[in-house]
Amino acid sequence: MNALSKAANRSIGQAMHNYQMLADNDRVLIAVSGGIDSLVLTWILNHWQHKAPIGYEILAVYIDNGFDISTGDKVAAQLQNIGVPYLIEKTDFWHRAAAAEGGKSICYHCARLRRNRLFAIAEEQGFNKIGFGHHQDDILETFFINLLYAGNISTMVPKQKLFNGRVHIIRPMAYLEKKNIIEIAAAASIMPVKNPCPQDESSKRQEARRVVALLSSLDPKVKANIFAGLSNIRQDYLLER
């Protein structure tokens, strides 16, 4: 059985094509958290590597924040099972985040430290793409977080330029729903590693997820319509500042 259905494969291909995510000789660093999304992305990019008409290199990178010393070994076992080259980098980021000041949460500081280190590794080792496992649900939730709590209309994008174009963030699963990712993980025998951090997810994201779920319960087409609306902006019918 192919773990990647035709529909899921087509959605990934459309996202890749529409945003020109991959090119021949790209070097892709995959940001791995140990969760189901990043592990499925790793599996997908490894799977595509063997069938794509272009050649690209991948390296899965897990930044161990130091909260639980056993987590890195569990993530490494999953990456070995997928069959990709990987790097586990141990840090003291959780302790540094807990000691940080400035009014921001531990999650904010820890995420910033981990992301900055990912960018640094990409620069140090010559990777021009960084792959994140965000999907359609994440994009919708981020839209509502920014709308409800920051008062702006924005979200994460499938491809984002950094450092004057030296590095691009790519999100190949941007067109997949969470349920698709769960199906792929089950078919590919991917076992996500539970994040041991007690502050794993923000309450705002949980609230945004409930908003999306509520709207979807009223009409199953709502999610697809909101997602389509993010690229169908009628600027003339928005307020001017």
Question: What is this structure, in a nutshell?
Answer:
It is built from 9 helices and 6 strands; from the N terminus they run αβαβαβααβαββααα. The chain is of the alpha/beta class.
Search tags:
alpha/beta; 6-stranded mixed sheet; 6 strands; Rossmann fold
Please describe the topology of this protein.
Layout: H1 6-18, E1 26-32, H2 36-49, E2 56-64, H3 71-82, E3 86-90, H4 93-99, H5 106-125, E4 129-131, H6 136-150, E5 159-162, E6 167-170, H7 178-187, H8 203-218, H9 222-229
Parallel strand pairs: 1-2, 1-4, 2-3, 4-6
Antiparallel strand pairs: 5-6
Helix pairs in contact: 2-7, 4-5, 6-8
Uncertain residue ranges: none
Please give the CATH class: Alpha Beta
How far apart, in Å, are the first and last alpha carbons?
54 Å
The secondary-structure element order is HEHEHEHHEHEEHHH
Q: What does the largest sheet look like? A: 6 strands, mixed
Fraction of residues in helix? 40-55%
Strand order of the largest sheet: 3-2-1-4-6-5
Number of helices: 9
